[in-house]
Design brief:
Blueprint lengths: L1 H33 L3 E9 L1 E9 L4 E22 L2 E20 L7 E21 L3 E3 L2 E3 L1 H4 L2 E6 L3 E10 L8 E11 L4 E6 L7 H11 L5 E12 L1
Antiparallel strand pairs: 1-2, 1-12, 2-3, 3-4, 4-5, 5-8, 5-9, 6-7, 8-11, 9-10, 10-12
Length: 234
């Protein structure tokens, strides 16, 4: 009888130890999980690539601050139509900007997100050298594109704030250590400052071409943002 009692007490003691261990281990895991409220991320896509810091504010909102940059040199665009004429363009782009975003998760169990905020465009300068690629016949004289000359264009968005809205999938601070996200959105920027310089036979049309190109840039108020983002939470 005593042996049975001792055996019962030993079993009860072992069960209590195991239960105590489980009760201490679970909160530790939950505590570790709860402390992951920060993330560092890298991204790439349009417009360019960058890095970012994110902080969870609550279960629905996160704060994101990022830096983006892009540099394109001597990119060739052929047969681009300007005012009904085909042109060849050699373009250069220098871009850098800082993002201030709030990310909103409408659903607790979904990574679908809405993103709001603004970007500060520290530098966005697009330059292009434009030549008309069609010959012109005037009487017995054939004028080549070298005879016509060229246009040098500068479009500058630098030093402006641009409101931003977007959506995507993937949390700013992933639940696991690493998380992949896709985001699609757009900045709404001011119309750029445009300067135009013409050479040779195009010089008399400089003012007219400047107005045409300025009107064309009216549609460039929307700057797309399409990116893949890899984040590390801690």
């Amino acid at each position: 009888m005593r042996k049975n009692i001792y055996l019962f007490l030993c079993c009860l003691f072992c069960i209590s130890i195991a239960t105590a261990q489980e009760s201490t281990e679970i909160p530790e895991k939950e505590e570790i999980k709860k402390t992951r409220k920060n993330a560092l991320a890298v991204s790439g896509g349009i417009p360019g690539y960058g890095f970012e810091y994110a902080r969870v504010l609550n279960q629905h909102f996160s704060l994101r601050i990022g830096y983006n940059t892009l540099s394109v040199e001597n990119y060739e665009i052929q047969d681009f139509e300007i005012d009904g004429q085909n042109t060849d363009i050699i373009a250069n782009v220098d871009y850098s900007g800082i993002d201030f975003f709030i990310e909103y998760l409408p659903f607790k169990k979904s990574s679908f997100k809405l993103v709001f905020g603004a970007g500060y465009i520290t530098d966005l300068l697009v330059t292009g050298n434009i030549t008309f690629d069609e010959e012109q016949q005037i009487g017995d004289i054939t004028l080549t594109k070298e005879d016509f000359g060229d246009l040098t264009l500068n479009a500058d968005w630098s030093g402006t704030f641009a409101p931003y809205v977007g959506f995507g999938f993937g949390r700013a601070v992933p639940k696991r250590r690493l998380g992949l996200a896709l985001e699609i959105g757009t900045y709404y920027a001011n119309t750029p400052d445009v300067t135009l310089t013409a050479t040779r036979l195009l010089t008399p049309t400089e003012e007219e071409n400047r107005d045409t190109i300025q009107d064309g840039f009216e549609s460039f108020k929307f700057i797309p943002n399409i990116k893949l983002r890899l984040a590390y939470s801690f």
